[in-house]
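protein under study:
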Amino acid sequence: MLCDKFDSVFYNQEIENSCFDRPGAAYVHVPFCRRRCFYCDFPISVVGDNPPLTRQGPESAQGFGTIAEYVEILCQEINATPVLSRSLETVFFGGGTPSLLTVQQLDQILNTIDRRFSIAPTAEISMEIDPDTVELDRLKGYQAAGINRISLGVQAFQPELLTACGRTHTVADIYAAVEKLHQLDFANFSLDLISGLPHLTLDRWQDSLEQAIHLNPTHLSVYDLTIEPGTAFDRWYTPGTLPLPSDEATAQMYRIAQQTLTQADYEHYEISNYARSGYQCRHNRVYWENRSYYGFGMAAASYTNGQRFTRPRKRRDYYQWVQTLIEQHGAIDCVSVSLNDRLLDTLMLGLRLADGLSVGNLTEQFGEMVLSQIFACLQDYQQLGWVMYLDGSAKKREFLERSHPPHRIRLTDPEGFLFSNVVLTALFEQLSVTDP
């Protein structure tokens, strides 16, 4: 379907009265890295060790000029994107390595977004940063430009594991980066860790968790390694065989993380994410709650008015796409999400959250018959202790009563989260054959 900013798809009364919310979030993809990590299949461009982070003046380094060109075209895309009349509550710079941007480039992007869409004064503005790109003056500039949340890509606290997965930073870089965040009073920062890495043992994993806690972040993301096709790890390793940990070991790593972090007063609010009280990632909750959002930049995805579209994954193709967008006055090729797909997306995303899903919202959007199918499918998993139902006071319901349906459905922690793929596969098999 062709979506045009002058077309009724954006402005007719049917859309205004539909269940689709106006996007209040924006993701910005910065696709540049010094080198590609061995597990990475993200759409990125490798620029080597240039540009030097302290470079001033003429853009003489090849990498620096490449990034500057990208920023200009990215801002053209932002200016050509239809405005859906709502200020942004979250902006997230991901990558790639967004901290390869100069302060001026970041400021240019944020100012362009603000002029076009308006960024709310209380917005959460996040930026992913690699530990070896952190400089105090640069961080201070990012902070002045509006960045108020940092996501630091730590991955591991053992030098041999950082080397094994192709990271460019050292353990000393991690500690130095966090010290700089503290110097600037960055109250909201997150650390990323990866379980299941080659040569990772339970003892090393426990050590990484304890070192992360010692640094006192407000948020921690704990991801399990996935061997993606076409990556270096895909060429080198076979899942389930050495030096990768066994499935049993990675499952135990998940349980260890849950126990260690919750005992340290981190709330396990999403399958892979933990936060101090008041510091959940507001931007990522937009995705998990299946709400609308803008995407900008190479390979970025958008979800607006019940329609999804993704930009080209190669930089030159993306540049041509932006030119076409401008020539067509904001027209975009996009795919409408069917009611059945929206149901499956809602289940897949919502069950990632400790809050789970509202039974009332499911009934309102998809009907009683679908809800009955969901309950029937989940019965066995409730008996296994993987699914739980909650009443209005968030107390666990042991039995499902037709006359008094529960208020919420959620997966249990940690076992339900650990076996979420099993539960979701069963739901998809049950519901995909029926158009609600």
